[in-house]
Q: What sequence folds into this?
């Protein structure tokens, strides 16, 4: 069943009529937009920061561990700019409907299971609760 569009998505006339009422609240609206942008960026960057924290700081503190503690599938770069580009591409694909669903599997693995070579270690990151 196909949905029918009832009116325009964006109507400049309606917005123009509402502006005089919103004008006294312009600084509140601006602050809200800035904070919304910051919160959105924080949500996008959080999985990458978790990966960097695990790979660069937590893994070094586990003595005698030769396996792969953090193996994300798909791969998430540990470098900042390639990681942001990767996450931005996923976000853009969601916005233009190339990606319909993002799913996650919260299946914890023990240290013994993760203590395998790269291609035999199960994917997933410890304490990763972001999707």
A:
């Amino acid at each position: 069943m196909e949905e029918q569009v009832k009116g325009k998505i964006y109507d400049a006339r309606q917005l123009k009529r509402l502006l005089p009422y919103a004008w006294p609240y312009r600084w509140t609206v601006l602050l809200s937009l800035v904070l919304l942008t910051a919160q959105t960026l924080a949500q996008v960057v959080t999985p990458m920061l978790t990966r960097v924290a695990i790979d660069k700081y937590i893994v070094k503190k586990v003595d005698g561990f030769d396996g792969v503690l953090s193996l994300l599938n798909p791969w998430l770069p540990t470098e900042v700019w390639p990681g942001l580009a990767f996450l931005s591409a996923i976000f853009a694909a969601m916005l233009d409907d190339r990606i319909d669903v993002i799913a996650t599997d919260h299946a914890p693995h023990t240290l013994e299971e993760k203590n395998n070579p790269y291609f035999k270690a199960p994917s997933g990151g410890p304490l990763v609760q972001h999707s």
Summary: The mean pLDDT is 75. The chain has four helices and no strands. Residues 48 and 80 are 8 Å apart (CA to CA).
